[in-house]
Amino acid sequence: MQQAIYTVVIVAALSVAAASIKPVNEPLAALPANAHEDNLMEKLNVNAAENSALRDSLASASAFLEVYKVLMSPRCMNCHPKGDQPLQGDDNHLHVMDVQRGEDGKGMYALKCANCHQPQNVPGANMPPGNPNWHLPPADMPMVFEGKSPRELAIQLKDPKQNGHKTMQQLIHHVSKDSLVLWGWNPGEGRTLPPLKHAEFVKQFKAWVATGAVAPAE
Length: 218
Ligand code: HEC
Ligand code: HEC
Description:
Layout: H1 2-20, H2 35-71, H3 74-77, E1 87-88, E2 93-94, E3 107-108, E4 111-112, H4 113-116, H5 150-158, H6 168-177, H7 179-183, H8 198-210
Antiparallel strand pairs: 1-2, 3-4
Helix pairs in contact: 1-2, 2-8, 6-8
């Protein structure tokens, strides 16, 4: 990827340099009129197309870096842990009482999520946050965010085998409308919000997809 960028940049730079050189005594007589300029214009057009592809892929990667800040924030990462235990708090500590994911993500034995997590946030500090559908992704598709680099997470999100069989349009719908995602911006007393406003997060997510859903370089 970096090599490709260098190549494009170098080729573009050389063409600009070539275009600005006006040879004084060049024997153009043997060539059809304007052949020299046509040739250059053609090259410049190719470079323009390459440049706009490059611009798109840079814009896409930088939109994803904004999206990534939200995905890695505690309100999201706590339900997208690398292990089989949800996390809690802004320091992402393991959920107390050894609460486990369970096969369907809804907890195990007496520690089913819904036993403590009500349909709404329970008012008060350190009370369980709520949502009618409060659970982790299932064990066979855990959708891990914790510990992933931007590149790894972008690749995972695009992969239907890892993202809950979603198309990119369904992913946009998920981040725009899903009630667990929206909970992140209404997390109950004493919990910080993700670093971007929800509307800005959705805007960056759409921009990432519209420009090719490029995975940032490592
Ligand atoms: C025994 C009760 C209980 C059970 C069972 C339980 N939780 Fe919790 N959970 C809590 C309480 C209480 C809090 C709030 C802790 C605090 O804010 O200090 C909490 C907080 C959380 C948080 C932290 C939210 C945040 O962003 O800080 C997550 C995530 C979470 N629970 C997920 C789950 C999941 C998923 C399950 C089921 C697999 C589950 N919990 C089962 C009581 C429970
Ligand atoms: C209470 C737990 C919980 C919280 C909090 C939560 N999620 Fe999720 N998330 C899930 C579950 C469960 C799924 C899988 C269900 C589905 O696909 O509909 C999921 C799926 C996703 C997906 C689908 C694709 C994939 O590969 O991961 C995205 C994107 C996502 N969540 C983003 C977020 C964002 C952004 C936040 C924070 C603003 C967030 N989640 C907070 C539980 C949670």
